[in-house]
Each structure stands twice: as structure tokens, then as C-alpha cells.
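Give me C-alpha cells for this 612-residue protein.
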Amino acid sequence: MEFSIGEAVFVDGLEGIYLIVGDVPERGCYLVKLSGLPASPIEVPKSKVHKISTKAVEQIRAASDVGVENAEPDNEVRPVSPYTPEQILVGTAREEVIKPLYLGQITKEQAEQKLSIGRTVLNDLLRRYREWQSWEALVPGVSGRRKGDTRLEDEVEEILAKAIDEDYKGPGASVVAVLNRVRWECNAISKNPPSASTVERRCAQSSMRKAVANNQGPVAARDQFDSFPFGTVTQHALQLGQADNSPLDCQAVDPDTGKVLGRPNLTIISDDHTESYLGFWLSYAAPSRNTLANAFFMALQPKDELLAEFALSARFKWIQYGKLSRLRTDGGGDLNAKTVLATLAKNDIRHERRMRPQSGGKVERKIGVVNRYFIQTLNGAIASSRKIARGENPEKLAEYSIKDLFILIITQICILHERPGEDGLTPNQRWMRDFGEKDGVIRTPPVVKDATQFKIDMLHQRNIHVRREGLLTLGLLYEPGPYWNRVGEPVTLKLDYGNLYRAWVMDEGLWVPVKLINEDSYPKTMMEWNIQRKSGLPVGQHTPEGLQAMQEQHHLKQSLLTQQQERRLQESRDLEDKMCEINQPASSSLLEPKAPAKPHQGPIPVMMGYDM
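Here you go.
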């Protein structure tokens, strides 16, 4: 063969420089491929293939320079390369690994480790490099438009929206009518109209939006169809966190009796930047500021003692803790209570409400991950709002106590912290980028001054006055503590609804614990105390026996009054008879009655004091 494989040549009738790929002697042709492009080889007769010589190159240059002197200068700035500097760096770096792999000098496992990619991506890069041995074949693609961005100009968007609103309505709504109007209006302003498929898609979306708006309201239509291109961008860990509650998808049992107690409630606090769990709380009580305070108490402290308490230190690790800069919640009353907001403001944590579903769904997804992919695999699990099949009874399978579920959730969180995300990093790795040892300096997360005081600040608050016997609230009497001999002074009392046997009073800026007097006579939790208080009659109301006794008392009072009156009347009659006997003459004969007086005759005498 006159030419060697890979030699650059010219081909008559074809523009550009070609490379010799192979020889086809039976047909008298060469296999050539266009240099610099991933084109397929073609067959050309040997007579049309010529070596690249200095004379041939000069002839081509002279032909291309014809008229250059008379050409106008071009001041337009053109890029030297069609690729960005980032694409060039990635492409050349990939070639340093893919080329040895292509030549068989390294294995695929070594290439995967060097490039930090998976087998599927590696095979695709290797396929592209086989077709074109150049770093340009390994250049990553350019990202497409972001969600919410549009390729239509603003004027065209306005025309399209107006046409859909005015022409696409009624039972005979037609896409053709909208398309025709958009075309002639765009032509009038010298703009390119959108394609027919784009107009059809927009019309279909508009009709669905109207249906949702009519059935569920405009807010639901906006949440479903409007784009949300701008999310919350965080730069470091603990910059933004979220908190929420949800029932746990598992029935819990009493460890002593085995009786099913129902589904406890799970409260979780998460960090957005690292996508990690900071703390949680599990309780049978309804979501309240008490459950949120306990979850924060866990989130603010290192988890070493927590893991050691349940003998998990040797097998699991949980490194996330610290004070958030911002806390985002939904509109739940427990998450927006006055004591919660005051506590966050006191510790320089900015509270914010999620304005739309897209801005606050991370913590809900984290609750869903725990529930859906772990809790629902346990015995006694039951999914939320699930239709139970006939004969199915999840309560019969329940075998875990709330303490067991608490421990299992800790282990599952530790496992989730070792699962990589879309960026290839685990939550623990993202956390260590901001905290830990770096350049000989150990950086620790920000913390509050006293986590216990932080928790107490969030609890339910009662404003009362000191009584002689102690501190009385909700029928519970506590010791006066530091308010001894200070009767009548106002005091702020904090109650732990999970343990009523203890409370705290504010004294000199700190919460001082006080004990419940005669605690053996009261239940431990507020839920039990409320049940006990509400199980009887309201304060001041008598039982049926008491009402009957009141009726008997009334009858007795009336009877006593009647007897007393009769006794007094009898005494009066007896006294009258006695007086008559005393004043009666000695003669036993009765005096004869006198004859009646004769009627007066003549003029009426003048009465004294009467003027005639």
C-alpha cells in the first residue's frame, strides 16, 4: 500500500484533509475518514488520493487567499474554541484516563475510581472515544434550560397567553384558531411564531389549569401548573433547617402487657444544606411545643451520650448537631406558638413560614423516607390512609414498644447519613466539608449557651401569683421554690406536659426547678391529668345524689318553717285564752247583752275641725 494507516491525504472532489483508515485492494479503493470529526469511513478510488506536499498546500493557500486583500475587516469577536474552558478541562482530564483504558493499559475499575463515575457512564465514554480518538469526544454536554425558563420571547409569550385566554374557550375551543391568531400577530411585529405543537401543549395545559381552578381553587391550580425555578440556595450547613410532625406508620405496644397503644407521633428537625437529620422525638402525645422542644433538645447536642445510652456507639455514628440560623415550618399551631417564636428570637434563630409547598418539602420527604422505606417494613406497620383488606389486622402483628421504635429510628438515621445523593456525597461528607479538622484547625458547629434552658423556654407557660400554700395552676400545687415568703408576687411557671412532677420558675434570668406537692396523688402526664379532670363533673356541679340531698334539705327547711309557725300560733292562742280567764268576773253567770242603740234623729252635729 502506497500510504500508511493514519496518514493525512487529499481527496479529489472532496474538501478537507482525510486520514487513511484501510485498504480495499479487490476494488482498488482506500478507506478514508475526515480528520477531526467523528465521521464514518468512506471508500475512494486510489487515483483520487494524493499525498500532502508543500506544493499542494501552497496551491490551496493561494486559492483561498484570492480576494483577501480587498475584503473588509471583520471586527466581530469569535470564540477561539466552540467549547468553554470548563468543558476543555473536563475533556482533557477524561482523555488522560480513557486513552490508557482504550489501549488496555488500565482496567475499568481503575478508570471508575480515577474519574469517580459509574460503569454505565464509563462505557459510554469509552464508546465515544473508540469512534473518535480525541478529547473532544469526551467533552461533557451543555446543560439544558432550567425548569421555568422559556425559549419564547416575552412579546411572543404575551401574544400566546392572550390568544389562549380570548380564543380558546367554550365547547368548540380550537387550537387552530389560537395558532392562526398567534401567527398573524407575530408576523405583524416581525417575530417568529411558536410551533403548532407548542401552541397545542399550551392550550391543553390551560384547559387543565382551568379545570383544577374550578374544582380546587386558583391556589391549587397555581401550585400544580406554575413553574418554581427559584429554590432556596444554601451555602453551608445549619444555614436553613425545617421541622414537621407526622404519625409513625407502625403500631406500638405496651412492653409490660403487650397491649397495642396505637401509632406514636414523630417530630423531625432536618438540615437543608447537608440533607441530614439533626434530631427527632417520638411520643404518644399530640404534636405540641413540648414535642418540638424535645426534638430541638436532641438537635442542639452531640449524640455521643445518646448512642452510648442505647449501646449503639460501637456500631453507629451520628455527627450532626448545632444551632440553626433559620428555621422554616408550615402553619401548624405547635410550630408557630408564641413561646416557640420567642425562644427562637432569643437565640438568634430566624423563623420563617413556607409560602408554598415547593419551599418546605424537604423535611416531609425525610419523614416519608423513614416511614415508607423502613418503618413500613416492621411488624405492626400500617401505611397512612391505606385501605385495609378484609380480615387484615395489623395490630395482631405489633411487637415493638415505643422505646424499640425510638432505637430503630436512630439506627435508620445513621444509615441514611451514609447514603450518597445526586452529587455523590453522603450527608456525613457534606457535614465534614463545613465542620471538623481542616488545615490543622478544628471547626465545631455553633451551639446555644444552654440546651436545657432552650428547651424550657419552649414549653407551655403559665403566668400566676404566689399563694400562701405554694404555686397553684390547673389544679396542680407546686412548691414555691425561690419564691418562699413572697406571697402575691407574679411568677412565670413552665410545665413539662410529659412529666408534671417537675416544673420551672423564672428567677434572676434562669429557670429553677420546683416539685409537685403530693405527686403520688396525680398522674405523670398532662394527657392523663386532663382525662382525669374531664372524666368527672365540671367544677361546682353536684352529683345526682347531691342534687337529691339538696331537694330533701329544701323540704326539711319548709317543714321546719311550717312547724315553727304552727307552734307560734298555738302559743298565741294559749296566751289569749289565758288572758281571757284572768280578766273574766268572779260570777260564773254570763252578762246579758244590751239592747241595740236607737238610730239618731235630727241634724247631723258639727264635727270638730269641719268648716261650714
